[in-house]
Structures are given as C-alpha cells and as structure tokens.
Amino acid sequence: MAAHVELRDVVKHFPVSRTLGEILSGARPAVRALDGVSFDVGEGDAVAIVGESGCGKTTLGRLMLKLTEPTGGAITFAGAPLAELAGERLRDFRRQAQLVFQNPFDALNPRFTIYRAVAEPLHNAGIDKAEHADRVAQAFRRVHLADLDRYLDRYPHQLSGGQLQRVVLARALVLAPRFLVADEPVSMLDVSVRAGILALMREVRDAMGLTAVYISHDLALVRYLCERTLVMYLGRIVEDGPTEEIVRHPKHPYTRALVAAVPVPDADQPRAPLPIKGNVPDARELPSGCHFRDRCPHAMPRCAEEAPALRPVAGGHSVACHLEA
Questions:
Q1: Dihedral through CA 275, CA 278, CA 280, CA 282, nearest 10?
Q2: Nearest to 287 by CA among 308, 258, 318
Q3: 238 Cβ partners below 8 Å, 6+ apart?
Q4: Which of 90, 145, 150, 248 has CB atoms 3.0–4.6 Å from 85's, for a disulfide?
C-alpha cells in the first residue's frame, strides 16, 4: 500500500537565547529537537511514536500537521510536499489532517458552548452553515454522546474530563478527516475513564478507516491501539517495528528500558533496576555518535565516533544500535 505520510531526513532546530560569550563568538545555539528522521505511514495504518519527554515526538507530530516548519528534510501527505501547500491546497490539507490535543481542559475555548466549539472547524473550512447541525450531531454520535440536549448548550467547565475528551475527539472528526494525530490523548484523564476513551479511539479509527499516529510515553497504551511502533530518543528513531514484537522482544537498550518501566499489576512483584543510568542530555549539546551512549550499559568506543544507522534485524524490526550491526 502506498505511503500516506512520508518523512525524509527531517530536522528541526529551535534557536535559544545566546549568552554574551556566544554572541561575541558568533555561535548560534539551538535545541536540536529532530535529527534526521525518516519513516512512512501507510494509508489506514495506526503507528505509535514513543519515548521520554523531550525526545522530539510532539514536535514530530506538529510537523506532520504543518503546524510548524522543519529546519531541513521533506514531508509529504498523499504524495503532496507539505512545504508547497498554500491557499486552497493548504485549506484542503487542514480539512483532512486533524489533531487530538493532550489536555481537553485547555483545548476548548471556555467562552464557547460545546456546540460552537465543535462547529468552529466547519465554519473555518467554509462549510455551508446549513450543514453544521447535522455534521455536529453525526460527530457526537461517533463519540457516543448521543444525548445532544445534554451537551450542546453547556460550557467546558460543566463537563467531566472524559466527556471533554470525547468532545475534543468529536471536533477532530467533524470534518471527516483522513489523518489523525493524537498527542498523549489520555494522559490528563483519570485512570477510571482511560480505557473507555482508548476503546472509543480504536472504534472510531476502524469505522472511519483513518490513518493515525499516536504520540505517547506509555507502551501499554500503544500496545492496545497500534500495530507498529517507532521508539525515539533525542530526536532520532532508535527502533521501528511491529508493536507486539517490540514489547516482547525489544532490541535497542533504550527500548528495553522503556519496556522494563511499564507498571505491573502485582505490587508485590520484585522489580529489577532499570537497565540505564543518568539523565537525558541537554538537547543543545548532544553527545557525539550515538545520542544514547552516555546512558547505555553496552556503550563502546565506536558509539562515540559513529552514529548507528537504522538497520533491519530479525523479527521485522529496524534498530539503530552498533550491537545489532
């Protein structure tokens, strides 16, 4: 199946304030959020991007939606380079690609009624106002908020977190998009309502045939939602493969640490120490070679000299690690 979204050598740097010494020396420091990311997402696929905070996964999601521009590299959607989209072509892309925000409490304007918040994308897309009520009702039915009289005239503060996240999802679906990016879609919700939202997202994706990218730090979550997982560390993909294989047989030392950190139901079960050390390095001064080498228990001299390429290994994985070369 042809790729729906393609990224090739995508780089994103964010300039930061310079010290007096840097100004005098002409240095231009930057946070290197992404450092040469390449992958494809096939039409109808559900792909997870996982990693610790600061690894670049949210920046990657924003780039795929053209909410920010890359410093280098190329991104295409259905064969069209995002960098070339403007005018009506850009508006058409905005109708097809939508974002589900992490925090439903901040995602909605507190001054808008729920109806106005969900109908706003229709207005922005130039959809005839006569169609708004039917489209909003259809979106609400998709997210199992069928009792419209109970919700449409209310304001965000009058709804629970789970109800708000369903409203946020309805707003993302009201334009009938083809591509959805969900950024930590349940991290701000109570544990008691997370399972229902996850089941809903899976149901909606299957019913609408959406291409979906889920951004998360939680491997247990993406195991439920996604067939394929990309593991990121400091702006690079370090492992890519079928989600179940990655969870059961992680190849990269960083992925092994993420799997080891997943909570277990039995609180009395002993847990081995995490197989990595130290803290995430400053993204303004990344280690040479492999970005993970300062925390890796298997680091060798080659790791400081050469950045490992993403190579295929057994089990359908691709791994960026000299141990697997």
A1: -160
A2: 308
A3: 231, 232, 252, 254, 255, 292, 310, 319, 320, 321
A4: 90
Give the whole-angstrom CA distance, residue 280 versus residue 235.
Answer: 12
42-65+85-226 maps to CATH 3.40.50.300:
yes
Domain boundaries along the sequence of the chain:
42-65+85-226, 228-325
Burial of 140 (0-12, 13-18, 19+ CB in 10 A): buried
160-185 pLDDT, tens per residue?
988 999 999 999 999 999 999 999 88
157 secondary structure, DSSP code: G
Distance CA 165, CA 100 (A): 9
Distance CA 26, CA 17 (A): 13
Distances (CA, A) of 28 to 19, 33, 263, 289, 320: 10, 15, 41, 21, 29
Burial of 73 (0-12, 13-18, 19+ CB in 10 A): middle
pLDDT in tens, 24-36: 666 677 888 999 9
Which residue type does 190 have? Answer: D
Work out whether the CA dihedral 250, 255, 257, 258 comes out positive or negative: negative
Least confident of 12-21, 203-212, 235-244: 12-21
